[in-house]
Write a structure and sequence with these properties.
The structure holds three protein chains of three kinds. By secondary structure, chain A is an all-alpha fold. Chain A contains twelve helices and no strands. Chain A has a single domain, classed as MetI-like fold. The longest helix of chain A has 37 residues. Helix content of chain B is 32%, strand content 24%. In chain B, strand 6 and strand 7 form a beta hairpin. By secondary structure, chain C is an all-alpha fold. Chain C is flat and about 85 Å long. Classes of the chains: A mainly alpha, B alpha+beta, C mainly alpha. Chains in contact: A-B, A-C, B-C. The interface between B and C is large, with 67 and 75 residues.
Amino acid sequence: MDSSMTAKPNSKNKGQSMDVLRRLFRSKGAVVGLVIITVLLIFAIFADFIAPFGYDDQLLSRRLQAPSSEHLLGTDDYGRDIFSRIVYGSRTSLLIALLSVAFSSVIGVAIGCIAGYYGGRTDNAIMRFIDILLAIPSILLAISISAALDPGVINLVVAVGIGAMPPYARIVRASVMSERDKEYIEAARSIGANDFRVLIKHVLPNVMAPIIVQSTMSISTAIITAASLSFIGLGIAPPTPEWGSMLSAGRAYIRDAWWVVTFPGLAIMSAVFGFNLLGDGLRDALDPKLKN
Amino acid sequence: MKKITRLITVLLILSMLFVGCSSGKDSSSSVDETGERKLKDTIVLAHWEEPATLDPQASNKVSYFLVQEQIFNYLVYEDPQGNYYPELATEWEYVDDLTLRFTLRDDVYFHNGEKLVADDVKFTIERGTQNPISASIFKYFDAEGTTVVDDHTIDVKFKVPYAGALNVLGSWRGAIVSKKAVEEMGDAQFGRAPIGTGPYKFEDWQSGSVIKLTRNEEYWGDKAITKNVEYRIIPEATNRVIELETGGVDAAYNISTNDVNRIRENEDLNLLMGPSFRYTTVTFSMKNEKLQNQDLRDALAYAIDKQAIVDAIYGDTAEVAAGVLPKNAFGYKEFEPVPYDVEKAKELMVKAGYPNGIELKFVCEPIEEYVRTAEALQNMWKEIGVTLDIHTIENAAYLAQGNEFEVGFRAGNANEPSNILVIYDSTFADKIQPNDQWIDDKLAEVASLLDPEERTASLAELQDYLWNKRWTIPIAYTNVIYATTKNVENWEVHPINLTNISEVSVYEN
Amino acid sequence: MFKYVLKRLVMMIPVLIGVSLVIFTMVFLTPGDAAEMILGDLGTPEDKALLREELKLDEPYLVRYIDYIKDLVLEGDLGTSYTTKRPVLNEILERFPTTVQLAGMSVILASVIGIVAGIISATKQYSIFDNIATAVSLFGVSMPNFWTGLMLILIFSVHLELLPSSGFHAPRYWILPVVTLGASNAASIMRMTRSSMLEVIRQDYIRTARAKGQIERVVIMKHALKNASIPILTTMGLTFSKMLGGAVLTESIFAIAGIGKLMVDAIKLRNTPVVQGGVIFIAFAVSIVNLVIDIICAYIDPRIKSQYVSGKPKKKKQAKEGVSANG
């Protein structure tokens, strides 16, 4: 009986997701976005094979060389190959962005579910807490958190993640509230499914769409925030390549070596651009009514 | 349509509000077409850091003192070579080993119109011994015993015979403040609108952006050439130079090495460079068991190509450090820098018991110069199997964990030997911590020896000891670097950035 | 309306107290000791102990927080800066106008460009202009602010030597920072305007108006823009309030003495009172700005006012989520 109850929405979901994918691939922007992201992922995964030099191969005799056939994007002040560092840097940036989005979405969704599902005082308490987080500009929040923690990937993930968490909580809460009283939930509850099961099996699948869109969009925000933190010196320790800290280190050479500040920024921009395109595409595909 | 009009109204009101917020005006001065070079009445300087206060006894950074230098006077003037000349005091003499008598000028007035008297000097010394920020510098001063003989005579007392007395009174925290002004304004306000006796008066301070001074027309000495001084706060070194190039400022402090060549090539700019008291050194924590091993420290020293580091990071703006003290310091003794010898270093690694290498933790502030040195060290030490794990933390966190890390980096900038060598003292809770009684005693001795020759001898012994211990590996003596436009003349290349602006002239373009 | 405003103001108090608790805890957990920081190398351990006592650094967490909140609520006192020994509120108020000016000018620039481009894009959907504008705006929201700033310095200060790169004290100095901060926000306002306009244009009454033969421009101005103005205005307001604390990077690139720079410097120096006070102040300012936006919206569209008076205001969620966190 239980299985027949869940089977129905699931099969409907499957058909829906095919639709969504078809619509997604029809959008030129989303495809471009996907291509950019794929390239970045390939960079990140196969960095050891793609990068012509190691990320920390210093050779002071070739410092600050302009782009050439040997060094596609030039070299930095230690004579390190910028292209290689950008390739390796995609690892750091994507890792931080994806982890922090995972962090903020899991916590945000959990909080939002609880608030929306139980309502009342729980909801009130949680939403006041969210209000508090929202009242502090997210970049300031991230800066204070990352100052409070030692620099490092995990702490940067937490710093970026907490600031990005409130929107999930709000979106999920609203969606859960509207689903909560629908008949199929009532039915599941009436046959004795516990709250956790109802939330995971029934409520969550129906609020997935906005979560997916929000996640894709917030990857771009996370990339920028993480790079910003590294830029002001609260991010990753050297010599690990990170796009934001490459920019900040290159700042001193802006007058003599334009390539040192230009290319890491372009890397950040294309990553963000890719995720924005995909996010736009996904939003339109998931909710055709919104498509303009 | 009405709503649109309302929306537009709102927008208009807002835009007027924001533009109204601004008060600044671009003060481009008119040019006199007589052919004669005309003096400008304002000099704009690019400063690297905003002072937290302009209260001399509450200050501990050069960035504060270089502004205060224009506003205050000292009892004696100390030139960069360490010679003393009369300033507010016309003469001074040791009454006994513990008493130094100063006779003050009779014609000096503070910017608030009060006359300078011996009471102000006593008050200044009292403040010095009380404020936590200057207490350690004034620790040998006996403020209570210091007596005002008459309005123009004061007997300054010391707890022990103290060689550094004139240095303290002749620099930085020894600047004489107005007792009446401090008591009227309170410490915090005084630090924000200081009253001194110097060639410039404090005029205005826009937090985080600019500090303005104006000529003291009643100055007792030579009056300032340029009427107004503006210190603009521009923390980024590159931006200071860009401002200089685009004409926003007339001179810039603390030029970064990588901007040096550009400035040299620019016909409109002057590069001014000279020796400083600044030196950089690698430090080893003696609390760390691994680093207590002298063979390891020697191995690390042999594995550093200091010349390569200096070339890469400083170009021709620094030289390889060849001593424990900075080159210009009193009693400086030159040593032969440890040669770069990887084979020798490898042998020493084996001898030290680390044939397969070792992992060390390096902690420094995220300052470009430090990080670049760290990364170069990391690369060089790789050759002898040393894995250097670099961590950068902001100064605060860094100071807090003072004893936890292993290898560190330090840039010192002091001219008094006792102050330079204090890093080896047991009471100094940072980085090295040898806890060596011999050093502590020797440091106390150096501080108290009045006779220059005895002092030099004692310092030489101390330097030999420290050089051989290799708790530190001195890397570079860096130059002080300024840049000005061609219109700026008479800029003294002061080793610690304390150029006297009242002597500087700026001409119209 | 007055009642509503009052209610909102009262509701701000628990949020601000919550903000103070969050930031106080965060700063408390931050490693580093202000006494070490202030005295630096040359301070003896005794000096440091003395200063630590003066600053009450050794008191337990709760005692310090309660003291802090007592001073804040009873006297509006945000404490004293460790470094300058001046009241934190003074320091903030000196810096705040600069940030307000920077943020304000940037929002206006962003709005003018964003709204105009958005309207044209929406009315000429799928035209060349629309395609280009949409693409440019996508690039715009993807550019990290600090990079835009560096590129502008590279072009206009270093190579063309046209505009200064540091400071904010004269009109010439405004241009680069305002463009930097405005650019990405122009893009997001453009996207918002375009989609709100499109939503409105599709609605029946616009078709009716068109069918009745009204001139296109009139239709757009009179009907469409009017109804799209609320989400646009909300986006503008949120962009502005976000910039109050989020202009940190722009301020640090152009050496602008705004509140963001004050905060970052204070965090680096462990100047705890300034960090706490700054965050609370910004949170307060952001809440006030949001309230003002709601009031302006009510002024423009009386329908919203009736909602307030009758009960709960409708949240403009879509707009809130559309603002990028680009600082």
